[in-house]
Amino acid sequence: MSAAFCVKFDFILFDACLMGVVETAYELRNNTNYILSPSTETIADGFPYDLIIMELLKIDYQVTRVAWSYHTPRFAEMFDIVAYCGLSCYIAYPSSLFYPKVILIPVVVVYGIVTYRQMTDERLWYKIANESLRGKSDQMLPYYDRLHKSLEKNELFLYNYAAELNVVERYEKSIQIALECEQRLADYDLQMLLAENYMCLYKYEEAEKHYKKAAAMCPVRFLPLQKLVEVYVQTDRAQKAASLAQLIIDKEVKVPSASISSIKNQMQAIVLELILQ
């Protein structure tokens, strides 16, 4: 095992990263001729092994905690405690294998518990999402609220939760959850959801901002442009509404559909109405 390793991080393999660092640290302590690089350079006698080992243990801690925080942030503090105990034991018993035993056993146990909890929560989310599709969104919201605590970093869950809140007309709460999702996900549908929530609350300036984001994300889409025309009409900007409506009428259609034809017909009616005013 080379001491000049770099951690290629992947969450599924973070256990291997942890084991690799611990083994490297232990081998450094016990092998005075440990090779630092592919060259012939070696560690000379009297080199401060403990400093190298402590640095490796810090890498161990940082790499593993990043994985832990990403997957289950609620248990990141628990890992802090486990890692602190392991480092303390290493300092107290530097010549033994006490550190690997102390750090690995709790990590494996806690990781197993957390993974099981995560699987259970995701299974429940799957069930309540299906129930919501059957028209039971209002009854499922207490479950969404409970799962929010454990799935708060899952952008797909956050989007689904925000969409269900929109269905039951809880627009303020839907915006709150959707903005959490926006920190993790740049998505056309999310921008349209945010804009719709703001439109329902008559916050046209915010709605306009998100419709423009959606249009920029998917330039071929007609719907965000149609909604922008509605915003301009509602805010008495007739000239902008007519100009954009004409742009939609002239816009090239990549894949013809009934919905696009309907939008174009609606825009023609708006242009005619605005001209006659």
Question: Your description of this structure?
Answer:
With 277 residues, the protein is mainly alpha-helical. The protein has 3 domains: 11-118; 154-217, Serine Threonine Protein Phosphatase 5, Tetratricopeptide repeat (Alpha Horseshoe), CATH 1.25.40; 220-277, no CATH class. 73% of the residues lie in helices and 0% in strands. It is built from 11 helices and no strands. It has helices spanning 14-30, 49-71, 76-92, 98-147, 155-167, 171-182, 188-200, 204-217, 223-234, 238-250, 258-276. The longest helix has 50 residues, at 98-147. The radius of gyration is 28 Å and the shape is elongated. Residues 1-26, 28-49 and 95-99 have low confidence and may be disordered.
Write the layout of secondary structure elements.
Blueprint: H1 14-30, H2 49-71, H3 76-92, H4 98-147, H5 155-167, H6 171-182, H7 188-200, H8 204-217, H9 223-234, H10 238-250, H11 258-276
Brief characterization of the structure:
The protein is 73% helix and 0% strand. With 277 residues, it is mostly helical. Helix 1 (14-30) runs antiparallel to helix 2 (49-71).
Number of domains: 3
Choose one word for the global shape. Answer: elongated
Order of helices and strands: HHHHHHHHHHH
Query: What kind of sheet is the major sheet?
Result: none
Report, as a whole number of angstroms, the end-to-end distance. Answer: 80 Å
Strand content: under 5%
Count of beta strands: 0
Structural class: mainly alpha
Q: Rg to the nearest angstrom?
A: 28 Å
Percent helix? over 70%
Average pLDDT for all residues:
75
Summed up, the helix count is: 11
Low-confidence stretches: 1-26, 28-49, 95-99
